[in-house]
Design brief:
This protein is an alpha/beta fold. The chain folds into 3 domains: 265 residues, 4-Layer Sandwich (Purple Acid Phosphatase, chain A, domain 2), CATH 3.60.21; 65 residues, Double Stranded RNA Binding Domain, CATH 3.30.160; 42 residues, no CATH class. It contains 10 helices and 19 strands. Strands 6-5-4-1-15-16 form a 6-stranded mixed β-sheet. Helix 1 runs parallel beside helix 2. The longest helix has 18 residues. The radius of gyration is 26 Å and the shape is globular.
Length: 394
C-alpha cells in the first residue's frame, strides 16, 4: 500500500493581507502529480484543511475542485481527511454523502450512540487495500472518554480504538491532530501555538508500537516524534509565518509491504520568505541590505519581506521611509518589526493603593525613558498625552 501523508494546508490564509490562493493552487497541482506518478493508494490529510472555521466560498472552491480532480484522475485512490482545530468539524463533514461516493471519508465530529457512548466504529475507516485507519479528528473538551484529564482521555481514545481493531487482518494506521510530547514547535510562532493551555501534549505512547504509521497534523515543521520513525508530522506545505521561513515543505510518502518504508518528498514553495537584517539593526544599517534586494516588478511569486529595525526613539516616518527604499525592488513588504533595546526595568511590585497615588504622566514618561535609552519624551507628545489624561479624568 502506497500512502501520502499531508496536513495543515490552511487554505484561505492571508499572509499579512496578501492573498495566497495562487500558492495553494500550485501546491495542490504538485500534489496531484505526486499521487499520479507514485500510483498512491491512500491520501491522508491530518487536519487544518482551512485556515478558518468559516472559510470563504473561494477557499471551499479550491478544496472541492481538488477533490473532484484527484479522484477523477485516480479512480482507485482512497482519501481520509480529519478536522483540525482551525476547521469547523460539522462544516467539513457536511458533504459526506457526496464525498463517500468519491471514496473520500471525512471525520470531524465525535458521534455518540443512542446510549451516549462514543461511536468508535465511526472513527474506524476500512482501507481499500486491507487494514483500518483510526481517523481521530482534533478532540475538544468532552470528545474523549472520561479519564480525568485531557491527555489521559486522548490516550484512552487511541488505546480503545486500537484494542478493538488489533486482531483484524491488515495494517492499522492512526491519524490525529494534536501536539505530541517531544515534538518541536517553531520559536515565536503563534500559528502553531499549543491548543489547550498546558493540557494538550500527548505522549507518543498513546500510539501502539504495532500501528504501522501514525499521521499527525497541527505542528508545521515536518518531524518524527520522540524518535519514533513511524509517528510523524507531515508539516505544512507553505510557511505560515516568518518563524517558519527555514522549514522544509513537502509531504511524507509511506510504503507498507512486509515492513513500513518512509521517505520525505520535498515541495519547493513558490514564494520565499526574506527576513533582514539577521538581527534587528538601526534603519541606516537595514538600508544597506535593502539595496541588495532584487530589482524588478512585483509579481505573485515575489518574496514576502520582513524588516527588523532597532529603535532607540519613536520614528513615525519609519514605514514610509522603508516603502520608499523598496520602490524598485521585487519584494512584497509584509512586516516591519520595530524592536527596542531590552533593559532591566528595575521595577518592583506595588500595591493597588500605591498605584492610585501615582500620576499617569509620571508612569508614561518613565516608561518612555526606559524604552528609549534614557531619552526624555518630546514636549508635543507630553502635551497630547496630558490632554488624553484630562479627558479621561473628567
Amino acid at each position: 500500500m502506497k500512502i501520502i501523508h499531508t496536513a495543515d494546508w490552511h487554505i484561505g490564509q492571508t499572509f499579512f493581507d496578501y492573498d495566497r490562493k495562487a500558492e495553494h493552487n500550485k501546491f495542490l497541482e504538485w500534489l496531484k502529480r505526486q499521487v499520479r506518478e507514485l500510483q498512491v493508494d491512500l491520501l491522508l490529510l491530518a487536519g487544518d484543511v482551512f485556515d478558518s472555521p468559516n472559510p470563504s466560498a473561494e477557499s471551499q472552491r479550491i478544496y472541492y475542485h481538488f477533490l473532484r480532480d484527484i479522484t477523477a484522475d485516480n479512480p482507485d485512490l482512497q482519501i481520509i481527511i480529519i478536522a483540525g482545530n482551525h476547521d469547523s468539524a460539522a462544516r467539513l463533514e457536511a458533504p459526506n454523502p457526496l464525498l463517500e461516493s468519491m471514496n473520500v471519508s471525512v471525520r470531524g465530529v465525535i458521534k455518540r450512540t443512542n446510549e451516549g457512548e462514543i461511536d468508535f466504529d465511526y472513527l474506524t475507516v476500512p482501507l481499500n487495500k486491507g487494514g483500518y485507519c483510526l481517523a481521530v479528528p482534533y478532540l475538544r473538551q468532552g470528545d474523549y472518554p472520561d479519564a480525568g484529564s485531557y491527555t489521559q482521555g486522548v490516550q484512552q481514545m487511541y488505546e480503545t480504538l486500537y484494542e478493538r481493531m488489533k486482531d483484524k487482518k491488515g495494517p492499522i494506521i492512526a491519524m490525529g491532530h494534536l501536539q505530541a510530547t517531544g515534538s518541536e514547535i517553531s520559536e515565536n510562532d503563534r500559528s502553531e501555538r499549543t491548543i489547550i493551555g498546558g493540557l494538550e501534549c500527548i505522549s507518543p505512547g498513546s500510539f501502539a508500537e504495532e500501528i504501522a504509521y501514525t499521521a499527525l497534523g497541527h505542528l508545521h515543521r515536518a518531524q518524527r516524534v520522540s524518535g519514533r520513525e513511524n509517528v510523524r508530522y507531515a508539516g505544512s506545505p507553505l510557511p505560515m509565518s516568518f518563524a517558519e521561513k527555514n522549514n522544509k515543505q513537502g509531504v511524507t510518502f509511506i510504503e507498507i509491504t512486509g515492513s513500513t518504508g518512509i521517505k520525505r518528498i520535498g515541495f519547493d514553495a513558490p514564494v520565499k520568505l526574506l527576513s533582514i537584517p539577521a538581527e534587528p539593526a538601526p534603519f541606516d544599517k537595514a538600508l544597506e541590505e535593502i539595496v541588495n534586494l532584487p530589482e524588478g516588478e512585483i509579481t505573485e511569486t515575489s518574496p514576502y519581506l520582513e524588516i527588523k529595525i532597532l529603535l532607540t526613539e519613536p520614528d513615525p516616518s519609519l514605514r514610509h521611509n522603508i516603502e520608499e527604499a523598496l520602490k524598485t525592488k521585487s519584494v512584497r513588504l509584509a512586516r516591519v518589526a520595530a524592536v527596542t533595546p531590552k533593559r532591566d526595568t528595575g521595577m518592583q511590585a506595588i500595591t493597588y493603593e500605591q498605584l492610585q497615588t501615582i500620576n499617569p504622566m509620571d508612569i508614561a514618561t518613565d516608561i518612555f525613558r526606559r524604552r528609549f535609552s534614557g531619552k526624555e519624551m518630546p514636549t508635543e507628545m507630553k502635551t497630547l498625552l496630558q490632554k488624553v489624561i484630562q479627558e479621561i479624568e473628567i
